[in-house]
Amino acid sequence: MPDAVGLVFDPSKGFNASPVIVTDSLCWNELQTTDFLDDKPQYNPETGEKQGIIPTILALDRKVGDKEQRIVITGDADCVSNGEMSKSRNGYSSNNFTVITGTFKWLSYDEYPLDTERINPEDNAVSIGRDARKMVRYGCYALLPLIFAACGITILVRRKRR
Known about the structure:
Blueprint: E1 16-22, E2 55-64, E3 67-74, E4 88-89, E5 92-93, H1 96-107, H2 130-161
Antiparallel strand pairs: 1-2, 2-3, 4-5
């Protein structure tokens, strides 16, 4: 997750936080450098920068009534994209697929893989009466061809007039 932002958690909101992925201890939140293309960021504790382990993915959970609410927050949405699934950088292989499947398993209370089958709807057939069938048949065999022929003749007549 090279472009990830560090996450800060406030426990006063009633959630329990579990870090899923964290940085190493050499990371900090840069508060000074504004041009990251030309300038190299420097750790400067005088400006309020704090160096340490920073979570980049957090799993939050809390009790709401008799149910449990679960949320996953990432500091980089690209980590779940197709391009990042098996990408490796500078000798580091990616484990994004494992993180994603584990996250979905945790969010579904270990009922994984997800069952996405749906019950067949009851209105899966069209029924028309005997009189309506005759009207549909005559409409398809006679009325529609007459409408198309009339449109074609109208177009030809208008073109010939020019």
